[in-house]
């Protein structure tokens, strides 16, 4: 410990009128004085200290004890009420917090495998803590981090569940703002006051993080959209036009899977993220379309996805089918959205021509290759109006009669097939209508493969 550091420590005592608890004292120099230094100093102290507490208690508390001993000055040995935290760090109501967390978990019938602790404290306490750092020209652990560590350690011991800082199932927020105010009045009278079971000043809130399930879906019938389609007139509020449902369609692929997932997870709601989408009147066949279902606030997380998959498919039999359900991370949603334009799609479509055509006329369609496609008229009101350059990778044509033929076509992802057929008044070129020199329309369309 050099002279410059000792001067900063003494200055810290001056700024706090010699009233600073061991937690705050150690916390202020946690980035400077290592755990090894603390161990060494504690071993040299005359009084006996159980060093195993380093594993069970706060390292900053022991760091503070070591600092006081190093200074060897009586005026620094005692602290009345900590000028920074008001002694809250020494008197965190652990038992009450754990009890309130347990009550909340039981009330919600909540399942979780890991957690993250957060906390709320008065703004003035945080500002004062930062101001002292600026005065001393140091960086230190935030006071909330110390609280979170103490509470998190207690919860780990009680529940045998681990803290997860990257992707926790739940975030448990302990609101100590009113407790801090109460501390100023009560800590001198009775330090155990915060351990009373009727501590109404303390609040606990649990944020349940989403659960993500990926898979692929088949849409076996026409007439249902991929996701909920809100009524265009009332925007989902409910009106005569939508029979007060707020929806244009009673069922969707999203709704079919959600009904069973809702029961299995006891969730609040869900969001459906597909790798692209097909029109309502288009079937999705073949190997299915990749999707991620984001389950909002699931109270049950431990699912048998194999069994759930069977239940879902039994429920929506004949309408849709879901394949290979697996848990995934949130990042999978971004991967789906980014990769969707880069995938290829295979379609099977029945085309009707206005004028009579001959079988040999269909050979002309083999020239379809690079397509310049403006945003279709039917979607330009909700998508950017620009020209996209797409490629037809493969095409097979089958004559049915003089006004009907079938096409199997493989294209880049994002090419609108209906407009490739109709031409969309010249917004797509070349088109089937343009090449055959007659107006052509898509009568039936199926997606038969989505691939990379």
Distinct helical segment count: 14
CATH topology of the largest domain: Alpha-Beta Plaits
Proper CATH architecture of the largest domain: 2-Layer Sandwich
Mean pLDDT: 89
The coarse overall form would be elongated
The biggest beta sheet is recorded as: 10 strands, mixed
Measured on Cα atoms, how large is the radius of gyration? 33 Å
DSSP E strands, number: 14
Helix content: 25-40%
* SSE order, one letter for each helix or strand: HHHHHHEHHEEHEEHEEHEHEEEEHEHE
Low-confidence stretches: none
What share of residues are in beta strands?
15-25%
How many angstroms does the end-to-end distance come to? 61 Å
CATH C-level of the largest domain: Alpha Beta
Number of domains: 4
Sheet/helix structural class: alpha+beta
What tags apply to this protein structure?
452 residues, alpha+beta, Alpha-Beta Plaits, 4 domains, 10-stranded mixed sheet, 4-stranded mixed sheet, 14 helices, 14 strands
């Amino acid at each position: 410990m050099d002279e410059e550091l000792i001067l900063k420590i003494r200055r810290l005592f001056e700024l706090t009128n010699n009233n600073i608890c061991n937690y705050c004292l150690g916390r202020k120099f946690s980035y400077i004085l290592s755990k090894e230094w603390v161990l060494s100093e504690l071993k040299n102290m005359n009084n006996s200290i159980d060093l195993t507490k380093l594993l069970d208690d706060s390292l900053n508390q022991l760091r503070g004890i070591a600092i006081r001993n190093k200074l060897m000055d009586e005026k620094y040995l005692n602290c009345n009420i900590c000028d920074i935290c008001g002694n809250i760090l020494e008197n965190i109501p652990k038992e009450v917090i754990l009890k309130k967390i347990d009550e909340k978990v039981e009330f919600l019938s909540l399942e979780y495998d890991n957690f993250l602790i957060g906390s709320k404290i008065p703004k003035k306490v945080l500002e004062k803590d930062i101001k002292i750092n600026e005065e001393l020209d140091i960086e230190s652990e935030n006071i909330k981090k110390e609280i979170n560590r103490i509470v998190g350690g207690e919860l780990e011991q009680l529940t045998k569940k681990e803290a997860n800082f990257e992707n926790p199932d739940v975030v448990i927020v302990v609101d100590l703002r009113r407790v801090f105010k109460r501390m100023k009045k009560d800590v001198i009278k009775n330090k155990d006051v915060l351990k009373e079971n009727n501590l109404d000043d303390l609040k606990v809130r649990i944020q349940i993080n989403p659960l993500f399930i990926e898979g692929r879906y088949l849409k076996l019938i026409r007439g249902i959209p991929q996701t909920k389609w809100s009524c265009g007139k009332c925007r989902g509020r409910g009106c005569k036009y939508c029979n007060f449902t707020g929806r244009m369609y009673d069922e969707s692929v999203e709704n079919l899977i959600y009904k069973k997932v809702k029961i299995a997870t006891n969730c609040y709601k869900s969001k459906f993220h597909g790798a692209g989408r097909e029109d309502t009147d288009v079937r999705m066949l073949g190997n299915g379309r990749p999707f991620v279902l984001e389950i909002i606030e699931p109270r049950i997380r431990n699912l048998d996805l194999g069994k759930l998959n069977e239940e879902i498919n039994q429920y929506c039999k004949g309408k849709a089918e879901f394949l290979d359900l697996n848990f995934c991370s949130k990042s999978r949603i971004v991967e789906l959205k980014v990769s969707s334009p880069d995938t290829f799609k295979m379609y099977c479509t029945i085309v009707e021509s206005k004028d009579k055509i001959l079988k040999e006329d269909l050979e002309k369609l083999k020239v379809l290759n690079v397509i310049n496609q403006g945003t279709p008229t039917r979607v330009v009101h909700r998508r950017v109006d620009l020209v996209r350059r797409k490629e037809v990778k493969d095409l097979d044509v089958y004559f049915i009669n003089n006004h009907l033929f079938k096409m199997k076509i493989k294209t880049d992802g994002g090419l609108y097939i209906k407009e490739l057929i109709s031409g969309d008044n010249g917004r797509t070129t070349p088109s089937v209508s343009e090449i055959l020199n007659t107006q052509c329309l898509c009568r039936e369309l199926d997606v038969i493969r989505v691939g990379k």
